[in-house]
Amino acid sequence: MSSLRNIYDTRRIWKVIFIVTALVMVGIFLHISNGLVRDLAAQERERMQIWANATKELATMSDGVAGTDVDFLFSIIEGNHNIPVLLVDADGTILLHRNFNLPEPIDSLSPYIISPGNLAFLEAKLKKLEGSNNHITIQIDDATTQELYYEDSTVLKRLAYYPYIQLAVLLIFVVIVYFALISIKKAEQNKVWVGLSKETAHQLGTPISSLMAWVQMLEASGVDKEIITDMDTDVHRLSVIADRFSKIGSRPEMELNFINEAVAESLKYMQSRISARVKLTVLPAAEDCGVNMCLPLFEWVMENLTKNAVDAMQGEGSLSVSIDTASSGKMVYIDVADSGKGISRKNFKTVFTPGYTTKKRGWGLGLTLVKRIIEEYHGGRIYVKDSEVGVGTTFRIELQKVK
Known about the structure:
The chain is of the alpha+beta class. The protein contains eight helices and eleven strands. β1 (85-89) and β2 form a beta hairpin. α1 packs antiparallel against α4.
């Protein structure tokens, strides 16, 4: 397992820890807020119980009771300025209402007369409150009862919604910060890719030029032509690699290529270098079509996928590359299927993450590079189409046709 894989695993663990911690904190926050709402609701019910008791005392009070007691009871009733209250008799007739935002103004000369519009409004409120727990029965005497209905106060309603509003604001803030960090991280990664690629191409340029000169000198010295040919092939290969790095370090130029020919050209290098125990089958499209691509980078993609497939089969098995131009009117599908050890479904996306590898050697950057070339430079898609552990894997590339 490479060091980059270890970094990737550690980063994934920290992501899980961060998410779990955030969820726990949100849960604690909501629990505390809901507790405050419940406590305030209980206090309001106690206030309404006192209000109901005062109403009962006034209804049963005889004319000889001292005025101080009457004033005290009225002060309790009049002291409710924020809890909407409805007092009705046993027949459902509204006797008293307080603190409702009525649709029609109250007549100052006849404040206890309810207009038709206000009555309809209050009856609708009563019907709604009859199905709630905000209800207290007042037993005036053995034959008389009244019902007290009340709504939550404005403060309690706001407090009930406040935690969720805060949570929504917090989530929006977290999403904004997350995408900002992702954008910054992606920009930094792009700078690293560009800088590393350009520097690699630059560093390879000097020794390649020297090797070319040496090959010419050896050829002039009468060295065996077969040796010169082999050396020239390797030098050319180094030149191709340097050219690829120079192209991935900047926006490459796209040219029209026919897909069957492009795939065949891409597999030439690997065909002579894979094990004889690997059966390579290429199934071209019945109807060839054009695709805008950077051929050197596309060849790099196919070589990486082919090499990964051969490694997954441990040098023995079957590898097929099939091209489909008929299934979709706009897209070209290229499937690279092997009979290797397969990939578990949970890793279908993580295989493209930098550092992910199942090899003892390597940096785990091959598929990351492939994804970057196909999706960022060619505007296509690459993904694991299908895979089963112990059976094999199929990678699919999607590229746009040229009309």
